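We store sequence with structure; for instance:
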Amino acid sequence: MLNCSAILFDLDGVLVDSTGSVTRQWSMWAEENNIDPHTVLEIAHGVRTVEIVRRFAPHLDAEAEVKRLEKREALDHEGVSVMPGAAELLKSIPQGRWCVVTSGTRYLALSRLRLGKLPIPKVLVSADDVSKGKPDPEPYLMGANLLGMNAAECLVIEDAPAGIRAAHAGGSRCRCSEAGADSS
């Protein structure tokens, strides 16, 4: 049994399985820009879209690319599904004791939550809200702060290496959803 004051959930890969959509859209974007899709996909999971665009295509208008990419992802529902048990878990936690901290934009996060008929949290920290994305601790520190909690009192549920590093750097305990192993 893990004791904590609040739970901070990543979205993609934790509450919603969007792997197919993410892979399709990043692959299409990479090919459109003459970039090896495998190189982009190796680091894209759990990292803000703007950081990926700036890294691989610094000559493009990063903000415009983010809007275009995330709109395409939000419209790509093929294979996007709620992770088993996610809806029940969220409904069992009192509002104000959990939030979503995602590397996606608010637009994409709300789109995925609505698509999955998941509850919309009172606190949602997205790529739009931070100056530094995961693996920097800023997103998780902000989530804990907006819940009125100390990050050390929070449990982070995460699946991406960048998010796990962010949780640890912010002082939170982290549970890896994919492996189910405690990484505190």
